[in-house]
Each structure stands twice: as C-alpha cells, then as structure tokens.
Specification:
Distance between the termini: 37 Å
Strand content: 5-15%
CATH class of the largest domain: Mainly Alpha
Number of helices: 17
CATH topology of the largest domain: Dehydroquinate synthase-like, alpha domain
Strand order of the largest sheet: 1-8-5-4-2-3
Shape: globular
Number of strands: 8
Length: 360
C-alpha cells in the first residue's frame, strides 16, 4: 500500500481570510485563474483578492477558462502570467479552472516552451506554486495532481502526463450557495463517480477506501439536495465540499476507471456536463463490478440497488443528447486505452464495455 497527498488543506468558513499569511507567503504576485462568472458571483474571487491586497501581494486576473479547458486557453493564461510577472497561481472555481491553473503554472515555469511541452511525459514537471479554491462539489482537483485538458487538434479530452499538486487548498462550503441546482447535481454526481470508481479499481487499497467510504457517507447526507427534494443547509454545503475533496484524495491514489474513459467522447462531441457524462455509466459499471464492491458502494451512498442509483441519475442529470453513435465512438476510444482498461477489477472485454455504455 502507499499514501501520498502533499496538499495542505484547510476547510472551514472564511478559510481564505483565516489563512491569508500562508497564501501570501507563496510569492509576490499571483495570477488568479477563474471562469467567466462563478468565482465572482459566489464571493470567492473577492475573498482571495481582498486577502492578497491586505497582505500587499499583487495579482492579475485571467478569467477566460471555459468548461473543459483547451490547450489554447492554457497557453493564453501562460502568456498573461509571464507578462504580469506572476510567481504563483491561484485557481478558483470548479474542475475546469483548477485543472487549467495547474497546467498554466507548469507553462509559466517553462515559459520558453511551446504547447507540446504539456504532453511531453519525459520533461520535468516542476511548476509555479499552485493554490486551489474550489467553488463546486465534484472535481476534487484541489487535492489531485491531474490536469484534464481538451485538444482541439485531436478532438479529444484527457489528462496531461505531468503531475502537479497544489501547495495549498482552501475549502469554504459557503461558496456552493451561489451554484444553481443543476451545477450542484452534476458536480455531486462527479464526486460520487470518483468515490465509486476508486473502490471498484485494481489499485484500491485500505488508504484509498478510507477516503472513498468516508466521502460516500458524507455525500449520502445531501443526496436529497442534489435531487431537489429539499433546500440545502450550511451543513449540506460543508458535507458536499468535503465529500468532493475526499473523492479527490481517493482517485489521487487509484485513478479513475471506465466511466471516466467513456465520458470524454460525450463531453467533447456533445457538450455534455462532465458529471452527467460520467454518471451516465456509473450504475452499469457497478453492475459489472464484483458483488462485494458493488454492495459496499451502494450501502455507503444510500442506494438499495443499481436500479435505484440509475433512477437517481435520471432524475438529476440530463442525458437526452446522448446518441448511439457517440456511445460507439466512446467505446472505440476507450478500447485503445490499455491503462484505463487495466484499472477495472473484472474482464473489461469489448462486450462488457458495450454493456456499461448501454449499447447492449
């Protein structure tokens, strides 16, 4: 077994303000990486900017990160960071800004390199210091070394080979209060997928299961909020953001498996939200899993069966755009990934993968 999680994480109300000194100690000028709206709307950007101002640390804003960030966006962020003289990077938002900020930190450090460096697995992975402030409850990117980017040249989405952990993660459940219900639902399904896939995984061990099952038990407490059956409370927001981080800690050790591998075609070709895309496959993935692992995941998350899990997914996520052609393409692409297939603790033959995809 092994355990490695080098991110210093603080969770609590006003986490940014409470840890201003540690945030400011990372450099003299920050590049703040966000999406176009949500980081400002939820108050996280204002909190970070105020903390840096109070500490006398300069900052520049790159707020152009799209959902499923592209290589081109990363390079644009890199160029701004270099021009501004940034010496650390702060990502605020969901998985897209957090994944992008890691890649941007890498490329600012290697400012003399072009975009090909992002995919050079033999090149050094040293990056500027990174801080992550999540504002959704699904990514877990604040505690993983993964950066998932879109390559328009190849029409694919996937992880870069460089492993880049944040130095600091600041979690405050209050930021979730500004998120629309469909964002909470999609990102909540993403968190469930992280935890389920880290259990049904050849790399699972006692450490990864510790995070996954603790996270699923927290996640279960707010399942009715994701389903729109009741309003969220402060405790729900805290449970959601902590479950997301625990899911991230779990997959940081195991990696994700077949549902994530299948999801990329849906997000790229259909524009489907990431959580909805992975969730499309989760119930059938559990159907294929060893019985003891399936039962443990269902029990911890409060589902009586995979049919009940599927009904929950159908109620909270929109999958009407999914086509048989896209699913076939997803299977074709996944069957070329021996690394992803090897993480499934069962025979991931094409017939089995087609059943998980809903083609059989």
């Amino acid at each position: 077994m092994q355990f490695y999680c080098p991110v210093k994480l603080y969770e609590g109300e006003n986490a940014v303000r409470a840890h201003t000194a540690e945030l400011a100690a990372l450099g003299t000028k920050a590049l703040i990486v966000t999406g176009r709206r949500s980081a400002k709307a939820c108050g996280a950007y204002g909190d970070v900017a105020a903390a840096l101002d109070a500490a006398g640390v300069g900052h520049a804003l790159f707020d152009a990160v799209e959902e499923n960030p592209s290589v081109e966006t990363v390079m644009a962020g890199r160029d701004l960071g270099v021009a501004e003289g940034a010496d650390f990077v702060i990502g605020i938002g969901g998985g897209s800004p957090l994944d992008a900020c890691k890649a941007i930190a890498l490329m600012i450090r290697h400012a003399d390199q072009d975009a090909a460096y992002l995919y050079d697995g033999a090149a050094p992975s040293d990056a500027l210091p990174v801080v992550c402030v999540p504002t959704t409850c699904g990514t877990g990117s604040e505690v993983t070394a993964i950066s998932v980017l879109t390559r328009h040249d190849l029409k694919v989405k996937g992880s870069i080979p460089h492993r880049i952990f944040a130095r600091l993660a600041l979690l405050d459940g209050r930021y979730l209060a500004a998120a629309p219900r469909h964002i909470l639902a999609n990102t909540g399904v993403d968190a469930f997928g992280h935890m389920a896939e880290s259990v049904v995984n050849t790399q699972a061990d006692d450490y990864s299961r510790m995070f996954a099952f603790a996270g699923l038990r927290l996640w279960q407490k707010s399942k009715a909020v994701f389903a729109g059956e009741r309003a969220a409370t402060t405790a729900d927001y805290r449970n959601m953001i902590n479950a997301s981080a625990m899911g991230g800690m779990a997959i940081a050790h195991t990696g994700t498996t077949l549902p994530h591998g299948l999801s990329y075609a849906l997000t790229y070709h259909l524009g489907m939200a990431h959580g909805a895309a992975i969730g499309y496959f989760e119930a059938r993935y559990l159907d294929a899993a060893p019985a003891d692992q399936r039962a443990a995941v269902l029990e911890a998350s409060g589902f009586a069966s995979t049919a009940e899990l599927q009904a929950f997914y159908d109620a909270v996520c929109d999958s009407r755009m999914v086509t048989r052609g896209t699913l076939t393409r997803a299977v074709d692409e996944l069957m070329q990934s021996d690394k992803k297939l090897a993480l499934a603790p069962f025979d991931a033959s094409r017939d089995v993968v087609e059943r998980i995809a809903g083609l059989r």
